[in-house]
Please model this.
Amino acid sequence: MLRRSLFTLAAIPFATPALAMPRIRAVNNASGVALRGFDTVAWFTEGAPRRGNAAFQAEHGGVAWHFASAANLARFEADPAAYAPAFGGYCAFGVALGYKVDIDPEAWHIEGGVLYLNYDRGVQRQWRRDIPGHIARAAANWPRLAEA
Model:
């Protein structure tokens, strides 16, 4: 299982087709909305992923973000940096390895008040083995990857 997760994570950047529409690359918004429409505030306030609603939408960093409620939208608008996930919402372990990879909303972790997302729970188990080391590697890689 571990080998398959690592192989899948490494292969994803090569299997992703070119997108027809231009998009902001520093934020995971392949679906046209940040984080595939999940409410970034809910991970902090509810301790779980929650799908957002287009009725509660904010523009931040050139990208649309959806929220599950007006209260969550207001929280985000008051302090986007407090709620926006690390590394643009891409898989933090993937960024540590030098790749921008999509995420599973169920594979998340808040460390030091920062939301980190992972590709899947198998990758997340690896992430948890050395969170500080992976954060440091991802932070070193992110400037190069952000607009790649």
User: Anything to note?
Assistant: The first strand starts at residue 53 and ends at 60. The two ends are 29 Å apart (CA to CA). The chain has a mean pLDDT of 87. Residues 2-145 form one domain.
